[in-house]
Amino acid sequence: MLPKTEAPGTGGPSGQRLRWWTELPLIVLVYAAYSAGRLVVRGDVAAAVDHGIGILKAEQFLRLNAESPLNRLFTSQAWIGVPADFWYASLHYLVTPAVLVWLFRSRAVHYRAARAWLMISTMIGLVGFTLLPTCPPRLLDASHGFVDTMAQYSGYGWWGGEASAPRGLGGMTNQYAAMPSLHVGWALWCGVMLWRHGRTPLARVAGVAYPLITTIVVMGTANHYFLDAVAGAAVMGVGLLLVRPVRRLSDPVMATLRARFIRSDGVPSATESSIVGAGCQTSVGERLPRQRKQSVDLGAEPSAGPAEAEDGAPAAAR
Asked: What are 243-288's pLDDT values in tens digits?
């Protein structure tokens, strides 16, 4: 369960409000580091192929064979394969940011923990790409029976035949970053957010359907093995466990940076008095002498003091 340490409605520690101009650069920076890291750690192609074949053998030993029948279905039925390719090439770029924005605007109290979970898991995935570069099924030798649906249906979309990247930019992506599947990991994160924080039955249905369909799509398009999808879910689980300790270390640093570089909201702190005037501090509800005089000048009839009250009349309360 995600930790909740923020004051309701603020999304930040100690009641500090979120600001999009501080959140957006942070997210862009982390994603840029992740994308650059994928390119840098491409790894050896021969080792990636060996790892891919090793995963296939492990699945055969476990009697798992979900990729092959799904891939045959997607390649033989264009009405399934083409939407699946669009799903694979597009939705993780659209749905994940959309859920982040929704949390930021409507569920601010949960936003920081959810964002931390996503970022931590993404960095763990990058470590996986580094340690275990893996050739996806679509890039294995044809003798293994897989067809690259992205190449088969490339005429229907903006992607090229060599990758899910836009045409001509296939060399700008790491095609051997298959283990773990962050397509599945990010979809699982979106599903959990929709299930936990959505207030309608439709949101909960989407929370279940989106990661499930994404898992089917990544296998049917021959972009991932079933064990890649399992690893993607496991990475999200590890990331969730690390949210609390990572935030315990990072929140003081972020608070210091915000106090130094971000302007304050002008809200008085709890240690400041509520009313301050002419260098004199007063308690809540107490008026300055000038204020009492002004009320007399405006025609407000002052209450009778104890000495002026009629006999037997109660004195005005102070």
From this structure: 999 888 877 766 666 666 655 444 444 444 444 444 444 444 545 4
Q: Which residues contact 232 (CB under 8 A, 6 or more apart)?
A: 125, 180, 181, 182, 183, 184, 185, 188
Quickly tell me which residue has 């930021």 as its tokens: 104
* pTM for the whole structure: 0.72
Contact 204, 194 (CB under 8 A): yes
**Assigned token pair, 305:** 């003091």
Q: What's the pLDDT tens digit per position in 162-195?
A: 666 666 565 567 788 889 999 999 999 999 999 9
Start-to-end CA distance of the chain, whole Å, equals: 52
Cβ atoms of 229 and 181 within 8 Å: the answer is yes
Half-sphere exposure of 251 toward its Cβ, with a 13 Å CA cutoff?
18
C-alpha separations of 120 from 5, 19, 53, 136, 242 in Å: 18, 21, 29, 24, 8
Reported residue count of the chain is 318
Cα–Cα dist 56/180, whole Å: 14
> Rounded to an integer, what distance in angstroms lies between the CA atom of residue 67 and that of residue 70?
5
User: Crossing angle for the helix pair 201-220 and 226-261, nearest 10 degrees?
Assistant: 120
